[in-house]
Amino acid sequence: MEMEKKGGFMEWLDKRLAVNTLWKVMMSEYYLPKNINFLWSFGVLTMLVFIILVISGIFVLMYYKPDSHMAFDSVNKTIMMDVAYGWVFRHTHAVAASIMFLVLFVHMGRGIYYGSYKVPREVVWVTGFILFVLMAATAFTGYLLPWGQMSYWAAQTITTLFSKIPFIGPDLVIWIRGNYIVEDATLTRFFALHVTLLPALILVFTAVHLYAVRIVGSNNEDGIPMTKEEKKEKGIPFWPVFMAKEYFVMSVFLLFFFFLVFFNYNFAMDPINFQPANYLQTPPHIYPEWYFLAFYEVLRGFFFSESLGLIAFVLSMFLPLFLPWIDRSPYPYISGKHRPMFKVIWWIFVADFVALTILGKLPPTGMFAWLGFITSIIYFGFFILLPIISMIEKKKAASGGVR
């Protein structure tokens, strides 16, 4: 007992939980390559935004009523008007939900451009993609909770998609909604998923994702494979050197974030959603939040066939999951910096994704309908061309034509 008292609380804890070893593995003895840029900080930013979402969500949760007759007023009257600074937490939560996807898109885009999904980082990519899907599910279930006109009809439209699944579709829709239409039972189910199961799964997969990153290490701008010994000799420790850079990036990000919260929060709140949900009145044009618009436009892009549209929608969401097996280019064709053909299709893909997002908020009629179809085809063209480019680059690597 005297020995433990002399060593202090941390030594006592280390003997039982090996906290010093955990600190070394996760922080002080985890080395990153020097040739990385600020885009590698977006992984930490996703964690920061998630923490903001949890904290603001807890405060909003204290006054929210998951009841179809009370939900709208609990958000737009009680929280926004009656609770001291309730509007701050509501704005923070809404803005954080939108910014989370901006950060996620940049984080995933960096991973794709620099080949961070390739051997031996397949598990890192897969767990990261699962986190993206879980965040999308959390955002979708949360969007219904204010019980506004747009969130209600967006939920009605999206849940209807499940009816297209062969054999079990119609019954599955009723099971998801808990009713034939989106009603009180749907709100209760979405609320339960949003505040309990989905955040818990996000925490679990975040831990697995971070563990996988620590095992195989971070990629670098040039895609050069490095052993742990090489990283230790030529790299920088995550703590405190790289984290000092992370703190700077987070500080700049928080200035931008709270500027949006206090001065430009309207982008995260659709004006139509300030009208109470009315199942007897359909809005003239139904659309989801901006971060789903590209995938929604792919669904609408195949306007001549509902079945094709649904298949395209599912593929557009889940094709990125299989990138480690679609793109098999070997070293030195790992990073987009050294892949001329990949650069071309990558920037076309980015421009196309932006175009799909813009089109997703426009009515799917006339020229817009055909533009949606063309941009949807271009989206899939990226994944079709990747294996072809991989084959060409494999031949170049085998023949010694590095550049």
What does the model show?
This protein is mainly alpha-helical. The protein is 68% helix and 1% strand. It has helices spanning 2-7, 9-17, 19-28, 42-61, 71-82, 86-113, 122-144, 149-160, 169-177, 184-216, 228-234, 238-263, 293-301, 306-318, 323-326, 340-359, 366-399, and strands spanning 31-32, 236-237. The protein has a two-stranded antiparallel sheet. The longest helix has 34 residues, at 366-399.
What structural category arises from helix and sheet content?
A: mainly alpha
Number of helices, counting only DSSP H or I runs of 4 residues or more: 17
What's the helical proportion of residues?
55-70%
Query: Which H/E pattern describes the elements?
Result: HHHEHHHHHHHHEHHHHHH
Q: Which band does the percent of strand residues land in?
A: under 5%
Strand tally, please?
A: 2
Compute the gyration radius: what is it?
24 Å
**Overall mean pLDDT:** 92
The main β sheet shows up as:
2 strands, antiparallel
User: Strand order, biggest sheet?
Assistant: 1-2
What is the approximate shape?
Answer: globular
Distance between the termini: 65 Å
Low-confidence stretches: none
List keywords for this structure.
mainly alpha, 68% helix
Summarize the structure.
With 403 residues, this protein is mainly α. It has helices at 2-7, 9-17, 19-28, 42-61, 71-82, 86-113, 122-144, 149-160, 169-177, 184-216, 228-234, 238-263, 293-301, 306-318, 323-326, 340-359, 366-399, and strands spanning 31-32, 236-237.
